[in-house]
Amino acid sequence: MTNAPVLSFTENGIYCAAGDFYIDPWRPVDRALITHGHSDHARWGMQRYLATHIALPVMRHRLGDITAEGIGYGEIRRIGDAKVSFHPAGHVPGSAQIRVEVKGEVWVASGDYKVVDDGLSDPFSPVECHSFITESTFGLPVFNWADQTTVAAEINAWWATCAANGKTAFLGAYALGKAQRLLTMLDPAIGPILTHTAIENTNRIIRDQGIALPDTILANAELDPKSHPNAIVLAPPSALGSAWSKGFGAQETAFASGWMAIRGVRRRRVGDRGFVISDHADWGGLMSAIRETGAENIYVTHGYTEVFSRYLNDSGWTAQVVPTQFEGESLDKDGTE
Question: Among positive and negative, which fits the CA dihedral 181, 186, 192, 194?
């Protein structure tokens, strides 16, 4: 084992001294290894970026002209005295856990992850390690996700009812990851699928990489809502209730998020419905992921950090909370910018 930790937690982010790089830093640094393209993990201002080949196009769309290199899942890269590899996190297309090995000691930074196979992202792959840095966005036992087919049936039934009542169904979801996952769950026999510009831009990037998505229609200012009866519109949460959405006339709105599992959150939102589905692991997923790493030391980042780390300590792990600037799933942000 090394005397110094393989990864340390600094004011700039998660740092590897042996390789002189950071993982998902929140301040500008020379070299950044990025787990995925959401804006709280992939930020502007780094001199050099390294991310999976699938994550890079979205990052370039968001961040502009960056100096970046792609890496495949499982490919081993030596950076200084560290061996680095990226492994599927199952969160969104291209998302990765980052494995760092120095002199035989292995740490894994999870980024954001979910352990169920959504049929779109590369499925989560457990990585054995000595120390595991995990999110805990939904780190309470109350969070227990239903099967994806069950949620799909609920959404399609709601959409069909809206269509039968002459209303447009508006479904709010993150532009990267959640929206594309929902697309694969929708039944196009009910009606046309329309998408907000932010979501369609992401769809285009994903399709350009050869990832199949159902047909969609761009719902921009030139589209006549009356020409697409029985439609469902996928849009970022901020667009629901906007002047743009009101142009569609009679409608119902819904949010698709893990936070819909909490009754108080559902009441506070303006949507007519809430569907419980998340691209983050639920309680059982977090626990199974941690067990499968075989890690002794657990570092808990964003989410229910205090409660989750206390439970881990009581259950035999050595766990501690690590303050970061990662945000997890939010109903107030759109998941791209």
Answer: negative
Q: Break the chain into its structural domains and give their ranges.
A: 8-142+279-321, 148-275
For 196-214, what is the mean pLDDT?
96
Q: How confident is the model at residue 333 (pLDDT cuts 50, 70, 90)?
A: low
Tens-digit pLDDT profile for residues 158-189 = 999 999 999 999 999 999 999 999 999 999 99
Torsion sign (Cα): 304, 285, 275, 182: positive
Per CATH, 8-142+279-321 and 148-275 having the same topology is answered no
Q: Tokens for 249?
A: 């006339």
Q: For 148-275, which CATH class?
A: alpha beta
What kind of architecture, by CATH, is found in domain 8-142+279-321? Answer: 4-Layer Sandwich (3.60)
Helix axes 56-63, 197-207, angle to 10 degrees: 140
Contacts with 159 (C-beta within 8 Å, 6 or more apart), sequence order: 169, 171, 186, 187, 190, 191, 232
The pLDDT of 263-270, averaged and rounded, is 56
Q: What is the pTM of this model?
A: 0.94
Which pair of tokens denotes residue 311? 């439970």
The values of phi and psi at residue 152, to 5°, are: -60, -40
Residue owning tokens 């790089």? 21
The bridge status of strand 31-33 relative to strand 48-52 is parallel
Strands 297-303 and 131-136 come out as parallel
pLDDT tens by residue, 7-45: 999 999 999 999 999 999 999 999 999 999 999 999 999
Mode of pairing for the β-strands spanning 232-235 and 168-172: parallel
